[in-house]
From TrEMBL:
Residues 37-264 form the Metallo-beta-lactamase domain. CDD domains: metallo-hydrolase-like_MBL-fold. One of its GO terms (molecular function) is metal ion binding. The lineage of its organism: Eukaryota, Fungi, Dikarya, Ascomycota, Pezizomycotina. It comes from Tuber borchii (White truffle). Belongs to the metallo-beta-lactamase superfamily. Keywords: Hydrolase, Metal-binding, Zinc. This is Beta-lactamase-like protein. Its cofactor is Zn(2+).
Length: 284
């Protein structure tokens, strides 16, 4: 049974106002901002000798983002990138040219990085991404997304038909077994935005649940229920976001071999080998 090796890296930071995260903010703290890391993960498939990424953080040339996105940066996000994904990988002995796949949990600026810096990489998006995003900037001058996120001949978008029935992974009943050996399962999980996916990466001792932007802080894993504190200003569809988090929590609680890895939550040491500890459950 193939297991993957995973390492965590950081590609930038941004700032989110608490009013977007929680629905009970007061005038006194509505403009309070929290600093958020943009984590991404390098994974290696030993049997196929494949190197691939889950997300790629923020590109370092912030000025390349569309004008509509720049306005949001100036308003509150204020992103900065001490080291982008290609540089972090190279520093750890992984050439950007050696990356076979970049799986983007979704196409937002702090996840898709700069595909042009991965010239040999196939860029994989979830079902419905391009219909929602394209035409992007500069074809659509009002878009917050870049057309360069979808390089011709290297972009692969999943379809609903790629998600096949699976057993043993309740509450999910369908997944895309991308490599055909159960080592990396992609799961359709819209809510945050169309095309948003999560993944289950089989590693030694269990599974990493790569959650993308299913939620933006650990508290949301407990406060997603109607009437809770969780705000949905960051999500396109509150109902589907709740459903996605509910399934993540159910899956983690039912097993002792899952580590939840969200894009903006937790602290990782540089190039940390991400492992599962017995009984870890909902610990991040």
């Amino acid at each position: 049974m193939t297991t993957l090796e995973a390492h965590a890296l950081n590609a930038g930071y941004a700032f989110l106002p608490q009013r977007l995260l929680f629905n009970d903010t007061t005038p006194a703290n509505a403009n309070t901002v929290d600093k958020f890391p943009a984590h991404f993960f390098h994974l290696h498939h030993p049997d196929k000798n494949l190197h691939f990424l889950w997300d790629a953080g923020i590109r370092n040339d912030i000025s390349a983002y569309p004008p509509a996105m720049q306005a949001t940066f100036e308003a509150f996000l204020h992103p900065y990138v001490p080291e982008d994904a290609p540089s972090g990988l190279a520093r750890n002995g992984v050439a950007p040219e050696s990356i076979d796949y970049l799986f983007c949990s979704h196409a937002h600026f702090d996840h898709a990085g700069d595909p042009e810096k991965f010239p040999n990489t196939k860029i994989v998006y979830g079902a419905g991404t391009q219909a929602h995003v394209r035409p992007a900037y500069p074809i659509n001058p009002e878009s917050r997304f870049l057309e360069s996120l979808f390089p011709e001949g290297r972009t692969l978008e999943l379809t609903k038909g790629d998600f096949k029935p699976i057993e043993g992974f309740a509450p999910w009943d369908a997944a895309c077994d991308f490599f055909g050996d159960g080592s990396f399962l992609l799961i359709d999980a819209p809510g945050h935005m169309p095309g948003h996916t999560i993944a289950l990466a089989r590693v030694e001792a269990g599974y990493l649940l790569l959650g993308g932007d299913s939620c933006h802080c650990e508290a949301h894993l407990k406060e997603y229920v109607p009437g809770g504190r969780m705000g949905f200003g960051m999500h396109k569809d509150a109902g589907r976001t709740r459903e996605n988090i509910s399934k993540i929590v159910e899956f983690a609680k039912a097993r002792g071999d899952v580590r939840i890895c969200l894009a903006h939550v937790g602290i990782y040491k540089d190039w940390e080998k991400v492992v599962v500890k017995q009984g870890e459950g909902l610990m991040l």
